């Protein structure tokens, strides 16, 4: 990886100037395709455009606004990325994860990482919200490649638990009180930007994947590297290629994310309240 401590310092300085105070937050939120609306639901929100923050890239994907938003959710101080970066945009994998390290430096303890995905598991339906319990990195890229920055984390981070299980058990307990269940799944990460082929999806199912998408894994790796508790939530916006006799489109991804807005917002709130 690149030595990111310097760029994180510059980023924090810019954020402090924009906020007029030292930035801090207990939890972070990365909002994926079509899910950026959640940043509008924060109380006492202050938005900083990514262009003003060194180390933050341009967010070029449709449905990714490009603001870092400080605010509160259920009384908890949070910082939200309204839009994320993807390697398919042509970015270096190590540049994708700078925001995670910035969050660590301002005190973020837990990071809720959200995305839109294709459903491989035929028990899933478009609109389902699935907790990411494990990952398969099928991009063959890793954001930690290169000299390690020991100020950030160890050379060989442990990835034997991707999801913070204590946090997950608390979320499950709270949902049970409301008679609601939460499914978990394994997310396979592809580089994109094309959607997968039916043969690839069959192969991924055989490998044990339930969900497929083009994001999240770099940020999950960065969490485990720098010691932030990760909680991944995937919105199944469509069934993966070949599962249904229909073509895939970004419009369907955005439409489904839009349809489940309130359910998604409620789940994120429960996840935040379960941490506090
Ligand atoms: N494949 C990859 N990424 C995605 C998909 C998909 O089917 N849906 C939403 N993001």
Description:
Helix content is 31%, strand content 24%. The protein is α/β, with parallel strands linked by helices. The protein has helices at residues 5-19, 93-96, 98-105, 165-177, 198-207, 217-226, 250-259, 261-275, and strands at residues 27-31, 43-49, 67-73, 76-82, 110-119, 129-137, 183-189, 211-213, 229-239. It has a single domain, classed as Nucleoside phosphorylase domain (Rossmann fold), CATH 3.40.50.1580. The longest helix has 15 residues, at 5-19. It starts with a helix and ends with a helix. 46% of the residues are buried. It has eight helices and nine strands. Residues 116-118, 195-196, 212-214, 237-238, 240, 248, 253 line the site of hypoxanthine. Hypoxanthine binds next to strand 5, strand 8 and strand 9.
- CATH fold node name: Rossmann fold
Q: Give the full name of the CATH homologous superfamily.
A: Nucleoside phosphorylase domain
Return the CATH class. Answer: Alpha Beta
Strand order, main sheet: write it out. 5-8-7-6-9
Order of helices and strands: HEEEEHHEEHEHEHEHH
Principal-axes geometry comes out as: globular
Total separate domains: 1
Number of helix segments? 8
Low-confidence stretches: none
CATH architecture: 3-Layer(aba) Sandwich
The pLDDT mean sits at 95
What is the secondary structure topology, with strand pairs?
Layout: H1 5-19, E1 27-31, E2 43-49, E3 67-73, E4 76-82, H2 93-96, H3 98-105, E5 110-119, E6 129-137, H4 165-177, E7 183-189, H5 198-207, E8 211-213, H6 217-226, E9 229-239, H7 250-259, H8 261-275
Parallel strand pairs: 1-4, 1-5, 5-9, 6-7, 7-8
Antiparallel strand pairs: 2-3, 3-4, 5-8, 6-9
The structure holds hypoxanthine.
